[in-house]
Amino acid sequence: MSMNWRNISLFALVALLIIGTGMFQSWNLALAILNMGLVSAIMALGVNMQWGYAGLFNVGIMGFIALGGLGVVVTSMPPVSAAWSAAGRELVASLLLGLAVIILAVFSYKRMSPGKLRTLVLIGILVVGFFAYRAVFDPAVQKIEAINPAATGYLGGLGLPVLLAWPVGGALAAVAAWAIGKTALGLRSDYLAIATLGISEILVAMLKNEDWLARGVKNVNGLPRPVPYEISLQQRDSFVAWAQNWGADPVTASSIVVKLGYAGLFLVVLLILIAASEAALRSPWGRMMRAIRDNEVAAEAMGKDVTRRHLQVFVLGSAVVGLAGAMMTTLDGQLTPASYQPLRYTFLVWVMVIVGGSGNNWGAVLGGFVIWFFWVQVEPMGQALMGFITLGMEDGSALKAHLLDSAAHMRLLTMGLIMLLVLRFSPRGLIPEK
Amino acid sequence: MDVINAIVALLNFVIIPATAYGSQLALGALGVTLIYGILRFSNFAHGDTMAFGTMATILITWGLQSMGISFGVLPTALLALPFGIAITALLVLGTDKIVYGYYRRVKAKPIVLVMASIGVMFVLNGVVRLIIGPGDQRFADGERFIINARAFREWSGLEEGLAFKTTQGITIVTAAIVVAALFWFLNRTRTGKSMRAYSDNEDLALLSGINPERVVMITWIIVAALATIAGVLYGLDKSFKPFTYFQLLLPIFASAIVGGLGSPLGAIAGGFVIAFSEVFVTYAWKKVVTYLAPESLEPSGLLQLLGTDYKFAVSFAILVIVLLFRPTGLFKGKSV
Q: Which positions are tagged coiled coil (chain B) (predicted)?
């Protein structure tokens, strides 16, 4: 980005907003906003790769975020050895069987000549394969879920350090994106949108229902953390002395230090990603991507393999989103599949990209921070507004109670308004593409 | 006797619910497909337009109920429906004037209109939740059943009962009437013909003196009516919850695309294809098979292909299959 004063002052403004939150509300809240802002910025970067570089309309961001969260569970939770010994082998066998069926189906479809026979064989393979898979899969799942369902009831993870889970989350998302892209990318843009919307709902439904994988709606709590626990800091004498030296309450200080630890880790990831994506955008590859986006036909005539490039950038962008999803789950310390909602995770990230400036990495990052800040702060603002509106009403009136209750829904309304206003009056976003 | 029992069970748990659901999806998909055909973008706000229309209808239903007006054996919501449609029509005309009209004038790319519709979706979502709250609302009244399960059992002497809810009956009948009226309008009236002409070839239509603004306006009004009717029927049949309506977007889009975007006939076919396959795949077939199979072969499991939570997977799988093998849908749709 040309480091011009306008952009620097925009970022400074965001910093000021967060610092203001710290001074007038609490530093805990300010740091919480900063942390999720960093995660949101990375999500927006990923989406910006797909939309801004290549013009791919992906409405399945929620699914990739959820897959990133799954990555944390399967990497960092300790394995449940009882479950593995009960039916681990059978479960893996059934999954391999399912994979084999799909490969066989694709293979037979590609190798046989078109005709009724091919269709029949394809359907035959899929139907027989499905029932064979279920016959092995169902009993294995029952055995696994029967083992101490209140605490585990799933296979557990690999017990590796949680930082490793971030790239694993990205990789999971990348694999899913490859499979989706392979089928849907050759199609028209709005079909891709619907396809990704569908797949994200399916991924979340899977997380909710496949208890053997990540306990479903029973949630996985107590994920390992890359930073120390507040309580262990408070028990350390040196920390308490250090905090009192600063004139701070050890409890508050410990939670602030922990949050700062997360912020540091996230900032490192964000800086690496933004450096890499800026370099990529300026490289011949970046020029090619923009050329494809601006005129597919011309790019194709120049010998560029448009579908292949699209697949590449789709996988890359989704991997970044998955990485951010893994980071978010680590920050939360738990995986709660029921909390994945498309408005919050898919469409809000879209608002970030549009508002920030599609096609510009810094814009996407800025959008991530700004929108996340307002997403958090609109609620108290809405409360204040409703309090003001209802000031003249008598206490206990149904309308007053209703208005005060529904202040929480001001968020969606505000996000929609912001998006519409930006689209209308500044369609290229806060920091436009050069 | 067992065969008849099996047929009754099939009717009760599969055919009737799927037909009702299919009618609701078809009406929703008709709205999506009309917008796609005339205004040339995929309207992501459609689910929330349905929610808004239903909300307006519910509020008026409550008003009517509090005044003591009812519709006899039929739900009061049917009386409120025309008012709900009028309010929703005003709303969508308003959004068109404020939001979409501008992008049409500057001839923005379709994807920009899709983005704008996402903004409208957010706003409508917020408005609906602000007014009626995010919770479940039931507003069906009147007679609950056309055919009652117990009465049917006593009448027929069968083991299996057949229940036919009033709301299901109303859904199917209303959908049939609305679809007939829509097709009559599109094929027989001057305005309908001008809409089809505009959809087929915009430039040619403009040259022959069709007023585009009028076409767009009428399209929005029809879409508002379709969305409200679909939403109210769905709400009567199940219940009204803003988030469910937002989620309906996926099966509705799947129906429209499977049938061929821009083709009204396709939207109806797509709606039924999606609804029937969803119900078929997520229904536990144990009951039906128990009646048909000899005792020795009685199934031990539920015989459910997929859990009900995976119903999205079904719409999605059909969507992918159709797109891979017939990219323009079952009935040749258009592609921008």
A: none
